[in-house]
Amino acid sequence: MLKELLYNLEHSLYVAAAAVLGYVIGFQLLFTLSAIFFFIGREHAQAEYRWIETFGEHKRANLPWWGALDKRVWDTHSLIWNLLLPIGVGIAALPVLPLVGYLGGILAPLITYLVKLFSPKIVALLAKIIALF
Questions:
Q1: pLDDT tens across 13-70, in order?
Q2: CB of 82 within 8 A of CB of 45?
Q3: ∠ at Cα 110 (107, 111), nearest 5°?
Q4: Does pLDDT of 74 surpass 70?
Q5: What is the DSSP string of the chain?
Q6: Rounded CA separation 90/12 (Å)
Q7: What would the DSSP string read from start to end of 84-111?
Q8: How far, in Å, CA of 41 to CA of 9, rounded?
Q9: What distance in Å separates the CA atoms of residue 48 and residue 70, rounded to the nearest whole number?
Q10: Going by C-beta distance under 8 Å and a sequence separation of 6 or more, which residues neighbour residue 28?
């Protein structure tokens, strides 16, 4: 079940990772939009391939300009999990990450104390989780 969930969230996790990396190095908007448009292009290309296989007699020359926009070639997984959810994650990350950074700066002393207090327990727990794989 976890494996299936991670499979469904794969594109969204990549967009979130790009947004976090962009925020850390100071180019959040650029990294987030690049990741979003990468997955839009990828899903568009895959929809073109599905149209060519289904309706275009396996010939790219038969693909009309609107072929990738044909609703018959979009399934639920491609539309929701691979296209709309990564767009939503990217758009949501734009205002959220600066807020988290601001709150992180305020809460940094508390977080540092908690990490020092619980770090041996966290390391032991991570070792147990890694041992499961």
A1: 999 999 989 888 888 899 999 999 999 999 999 999 999 999 999 999 999 999 999 9
A2: no
A3: 80
A4: yes
A5: -HHHHHHHHHHHHHHHHHHHHHHHHT-HHHHHHHHHHHHHHHHHHHHHHHHHHHHSTT-GGG--TTGGG-GGG--HIIIIIIIIHHHHHHHHHHHHHHHHHHHHHHHHHHHHHHHHHHHHHHHHHHHHHHHH-
A6: 8
A7: IHHHHHHHHHHHHHHHHHHHHHHHHHHH
A8: 18
A9: 9
A10: 19, 22, 93, 94, 97, 98
Please tell me the distance from the alpha carbon of residue 38 to that of residue 46, in angstroms, as a whole number.
12
Q: What is the pLDDT of residue 68?
A: 95
Phi first, then psi: give them for residue 59, nearest 5 degrees: -125, 125
| Contacts of range 77-80, beta carbons closer than 8 Å, 24 or more positions apart | 77/8, 78/43, 78/46, 78/47
Q: Residue 123 corresponds to which amino acid?
A: V
57: left (phi over 0), alpha (psi -120 to 50) or beta: left
Name the residue with tokens 């007699």: 57
